[in-house]
Amino acid sequence: MSNASCSGDAAEFEACRDDSAALIFKIVAIAAILTAGVTGVAIPLVGKKCRFLRTDSNLFVAAKAFAAGVILATGFVHMLPDATSSLTNTCIPQYPWSKFPFSGFFAMMAALGTLLVDFVGTQYYERKQEKHRASQLGQVDSVDLLSDSGIVEVKERNRKVFGEEEGGGMHIVGIHAHAAHHRHNHPPGQEACEGHVMEHSHGFGGGDEEGSVRHVVVSQVLELGIVSHSIIIGLSLGVSHSPCTIRPLFVALSFHQFFEGFALGGCISQAQFRTLHATLMACFFAVTTPAGIAIGIGISSFYNPDSPRALIIEGILDSISAGILVYMALVDLIAADFLSKRMSCNVKLQVMSYFALFLGAGLMSSLAIWA
């Protein structure tokens, strides 16, 4: 099962087989895809220092919508059809693979699993932040509450705590006060937009702690989905012996890696990680596809990508990747931004974002012609 070949176009493959030329193309592909990945993921991370590319700017929101379209098309147009093709191949055992739509089932279970990870991760980071705030407030030795002004006067302290004023006092900004402040009710219609304050728009402002927690979870889960299928596509290119296959594939994968890197870089930027953490996540993403190609080169002499076992493994992994990416695109990227108060109150931003969303999805879908 592991060595038998299911390739139906062996004659065409043999006519274009050239191991030495294929190796040169693979080396060029490693360099090109690595460059594209680094460039894509670096633009949002470096650009956040520029005023027009900050995470609270309209341009960044539109760029994020473009990236969301890329991720959605990757799941629906690239991953899921490939998974279905592998798991319905006539060379793999008819039972049970032809008796049930396993690609859709695995994608669905991966999406539900991502929801669970999303929820548990958010709960974990929220509790972690609450403990951090409590430890900060616990450093104040004695306080006098001024009932009229709502100011806490600090008698003895070793250093400033969050929210402390220059005059020696601090606003009461505990967990419950913070939550109550953000539970305010917006009036309907135009008044809601007129009273909308940019600093408190959830999910966009860099200083919003709840939004920051969500971005931490989103960026990590999104990287998991992207990395898992990046290794697969890198491996499939690395084991190929045909320049006719590799030549268009590595060009398409370079654009593929650039767009996905941009999407991931935007999420990492909004999560406000420390520089080292953000750099490690960006590098891990950038090297996965080149590493998959390198592994494919190493095992190409004995690995048969057309064997039944390889088809089943790739089909399952593609299905799981598709489920993760579709969930992340629809729930954590598109719904979070397009259903926000900021978007509903800004017609210009709506037009920009919807255009960018469809453009990203369309361009990424068109790459399926070559890869």
The total domain count is 1
> How many helices in DSSP terms?
13
Low-confidence stretches: 141-147, 152-187, 197-207
What's the number of extended β-strand segments? Answer: 3
Mean pLDDT: 75
Terminal residue distance: 26 Å
The rough form would be described as globular
Question: What is the gyration radius calculated from CA atoms?
Answer: 25 Å
> What percentage of residues falls in helices of 4 or more residues?
55-70%
How much of the sequence is in beta strands? under 5%
Largest sheet: number of strands, sense, barrel closure: 3 strands, antiparallel
Instruction: Please state the oligomeric state of the protein chains shown.
Output: single chain
- Helix-strand makeup class: mainly alpha
Order of helices and strands: HHHHHEEEHHHHHHHH
Question: How would you characterize this protein structure?
Answer:
The structure is a single chain. The chain is mostly helical. The protein has helices at residues 10-15, 19-47, 58-87, 94-97, 102-137, 175-182, 190-194, 209-238, 243-271, 275-299, 308-338, 341-344, 347-366; strands at 143-146, 151-154, 169-171. Strands 1-2-3 form a 3-stranded antiparallel beta sheet, with no helix packed on it. Helix 5 packs antiparallel against helix 8. The two termini are 26 Å apart. The model is unreliable at 141-147, 152-187 and 197-207 (pLDDT under 50). GO terms for molecular function: zinc ion transmembrane transporter activity. It is found in: Membrane.
Brief write-up:
By secondary structure, the chain is mainly α. It contains 13 helices and 3 strands.
